[in-house]
Design brief:
Distance between the termini: 19 Å
CATH architecture: 4-Layer Sandwich
CATH superfamily: Ribonuclease Z/Hydroxyacylglutathione hydrolase-like
Shape: globular
Order of helices and strands: EEEEEEEEHEHEEEEEHEEEHEHE
Largest sheet: 8 strands, mixed
Strand content: 25-35%
Number of domains: 1
CATH topology: Metallo-beta-lactamase, Chain A
Helix content: 10-25%
Radius of gyration: 18 Å
Structural class: alpha/beta
Oligomer: single chain
CATH class: Alpha Beta
Number of strands: 19
Length: 294
């Protein structure tokens, strides 16, 4: 039996300025900037995830003296971003919110993130972010469009290493029109490993249309801290999205599981028809389910 959802709602809705965009609930897009940075456009919303705009050769600090070099360039520069409605930040790490974002991102744009990251960003002069603990949610309203963002469980490392890495969250995005009823459900894993709590997600959300998978097989001190190819396939089996898009791969020297490994694992699992691959600068255009509202 699917258990009834336990959801804690953040006290105040986030109401955005309606800039007159068309409320298209039929189709949307995901533009891949690089690393875990994408631009999601759907239902009149424009959402940026985990802003990372460093260039090839730049170094990022991961804490406790750990550094990693970027191997790739972002598909666009931060100055070329479209007008944003909000930013989703899975956690506070330099390859997800870098010094370029800290300096140049519009500090008035709403950010939804973990309490740990929210405290840091507010101290840097950003509009006070919406801080979500696991299963907490925030309703975002823009004209006739509705978006509920709910923090999903995630763990960035096993055992004692968990104490030295920042807390991480996944995100569930549920889009709807003014009449209510979810038209599209999108899950972003964040930098999590596969662990038992991920199994709670399909119990609460049995129909997920699109999943963005943070892969890369990142290793810190030799220990796996983001999903590699095998864990990525296991996460697909657990979450069971209609379509999965891998991101967060090949960009940094700490990423030890290349995209080719994931492609092989997907083929061996017979899941090729469920995955869409994006290179930097590619756009995945998707359609909402034909059966309409959930």
């Amino acid at each position: 039996m699917v258990r009834e959802r336990e959801r804690c709602v953040v006290e105040n809705d986030l109401i955005l300025v309606d800039r007159g965009e068309e409320l298209d609930l039929e189709r949307g897009s995901v533009f891949f900037v690089g690393t875990a940075t994408v631009i999601i456009r759907y239902a009149g919303f424009t959402i940026l995830t985990d802003p990372n705009f460093l260039h090839a050769g730049d170094h990022v600090h991961l804490g406790y003296g750990l550094r990693s070099q970027r191997r790739t360039n972002p598909a666009i520069e931060i100055e070329d971003l479209p007008p944003l409605d909000l930013v989703l930040l899975s956690h506070l790490h330099g390859d997800h919110f870098d010094r370029v974002a800290e300096e140049k991102l519009d500090k008035t744009v709403p950010i939804i993130t973990t309490p740990h990251a929210a405290r840091y960003l507010e101290g840097k002069g950003f509009r006070p972010p919406a801080a979500l603990n696991t299963w907490e949610s925030l309703l975002v309203r823009k004209g006739d469009a509705r978006l509920r963002v709910t923090a999903m469980p995630g763990t960035h490392a096993p055992g004692p290493l968990r104490k030295v890495l920042p807390p991480v969250m996944g995100s569930m995005l549920e889009f709807a029109g003014a009449e209510g009823g979810v038209r599209l459900r999108m899950y972003i894993t964040g930098d999590t490993l596969v662990y038992d709590r991920l199994k709670e997600i399909p119990e609460r959300y049995p129909e997920i249309d699109l999943a963005l998978l943070h892969l890369g097989g990142t290793r810190v001190l030799g220990i796996l801290v983001t999903m590699d190819a095998e864990q990525g396939v296991e996460a697909m089996r657990i979450i069971n999205p209609r379509t999965a898009v891998p991101i967060h791969y090949n960009d940094y020297t700490v990423f030890k599981s290349p995209l080719e490994d994931f492609k092989k694992a997907v083929a061996q699992a017979g899941l090729e028809d469920r995955v869409r691959y994006l290179a930097h600068g590619d756009t995945y255009e998707f359609e909402a389910p034909a059966n309409g509202a959930r």
